[in-house]
Design brief:
Phosphorylase Kinase, domain 1; six-stranded antiparallel beta sheet; 1 helix
Length: 90
Amino acid sequence: MVGGRLDYVDNLPRAALIYRRCQQIINLFIAFCRAWQQLPVCEIRAGYNIVDWTKSGMAYWAVSSWMPPSFTEFVQLAREKSSVASTPRR
């Protein structure tokens, strides 16, 4: 991790953690969520890979121009580390 910031997406605050891996930048956005999805959803927008998932009441979005399989490996590690031992908010 090389840094962090507070961003606003759709006028809602989002924590943004910035990682550097193999000279590539990955933004990991985190926010409280209400919807639940078990598996990550992958898509490409404007040349950026986006993977999002929810876990323990939190929503995560990993965004980078870095291509799989290395980006996929980062997402797997982030998903493993994103387990929060707390009660989900409803």
